[in-house]
């Protein structure tokens, strides 16, 4: 009877850890929804920045910020699928994609938007005798950037304005910082969700209670019933 009571207490602890894991997965799902929301807003702002750049005839890296923003949407979608299906592989993928966001995609948006703001506020103009997307450069190529009072009217007619409206880029930088913080929080929660059950199993194994937990209940009952029968024989 003592073994049965010990086993029941172990099952209660297992249910408690399972409930904690479900709560962590629910938190991951909420964070994933925020990833999707931020990514969609950043796609809209990036599209508006490209449209504004086209209207005022300025040069910026078209498409880069849209690609990074779409990646944030994918991060959220993977997180939603992983937290809803309880699949460990998807949660690991969610964690890895958040790490990519922290070290690659968020810095890319902040860097590009910062250059756009700098060039636009300082009224910088650029001119190159080769196309920026050319596969090879000419042997005697030349590219220059002039800012402020160094650019006269004649130079403005042959050069191209650099940068975009700082309000759109400032919004992108702010959202990228939020995505950076959100990705860090997601990595912490995902790591706890993945490694907490393994830690609990390790603790149970070292304490010698893992074999008791894995023992079926009916086996313990049969063992207790067979003791008085054996004594009669």
From TrEMBL:
Bilayer topology annotation: Multi-pass membrane protein
Presence of keyword Transmembrane: yes
Pfam families recorded: CD20 (PF04103)
UniProt GO cellular component terms: membrane
Recorded name of the encoding gene: Cni-M60.6
Subcellular location: Membrane
Regions that span the bilayer: 30-48, 68-86, 92-112, 166-191
Official protein name in the record: Uncharacterized protein
Residues spanning the signal sequence: none
Taxonomic placement: Eukaryota, Metazoa, Ecdysozoa, Nematoda, Chromadorea
Keywords: Membrane, Transmembrane, Transmembrane helix
Main location: membrane
Record InterPro entries: CD20-like
